[in-house]
Amino acid sequence: MSRSGALDDNEIQTEMNKMVAFISQEAREKAREIQVKADEEFAIEKAKIVRQESLAIDSQYEKKKKQAEVGWKISQSTAINNSRIKVLRSRNDHLESIFDDANKQVKDLSEGDRYKQGIENLILEVLLKLLSPNITITHRPKDKELIEKSSKTALKKYKDISGRETKIEFEDKLSNDSSGGIIGSSLKGKIKVDNTLEERLKILEQKMLPELRHDLFGVNENRKFYTVSFTQSPLSKLTWRLLREQY
């Protein structure tokens, strides 16, 4: 049955309560929707920030890791180089001690009979290198008699080999404290051949270094070619033997 006319106060209050309840329900649902959407947006933004910060931390970590690796490699390379330098210095000191001992033995050699046998070859070598009609031979004062005697024999051999003749003058200007040998010169000293035992030893040192290093320290893995040749004169062979006996 329908009703017409105005509503009384109770009915009006009831209708208002219904409207208020409806509005409140709509508001709560809308609030829940807003809260859910806000939570979703917060989670997305949070994940985005976390990812960005994580990438930044990873990038910083990789950078510091690379810096640490570079620093470690530099330290390792420096340590290896320092070790190599110490090894090379030690090897060089050992080689120098060998040459020092050899030099002492060469001085002893210059006082023995083998020196008398070798001096003639030194003079002959000077003659054949200079091929001059006038040659000056410089020697130790104490070798004067030996030099003059050996020169006569060397001149004969020189003539047989070259078919030439030469005149020798003598100067006793080498120190008696030296290892001996001679210096030959021509053209008033413009051309010289240093055949002193000190100079011959220096030449042999340079030529012998590769073989000495091989004998003392083993094969050098970084070395690909070996071009070692030695003077084959009797005196050079003798000096070479003395050097090799040092170790």
From TrEMBL:
Domain of life the protein comes from: Eukaryota
Keyword flag Nuclease: no
GO MF term (any one): proton-transporting ATPase activity, rotational mechanism
A GO term from the CC aspect: proton-transporting two-sector ATPase complex, catalytic domain
A Pfam family matched in the record: vATP-synt_E
Record carries keyword Isomerase: no
Family: Belongs to the V-ATPase E subunit family.
UniProt cross-references to PANTHER family, sorted A to Z: ATPASE H+-TRANSPORTING V1 SUBUNIT E1A-RELATED
HAMAP family membership: ATP_synth_E_arch
Name of the protein this chain belongs to: V-type H+-transporting ATPase subunit E
Species per Swiss-Prot/TrEMBL record: Kwoniella dendrophila CBS 6074
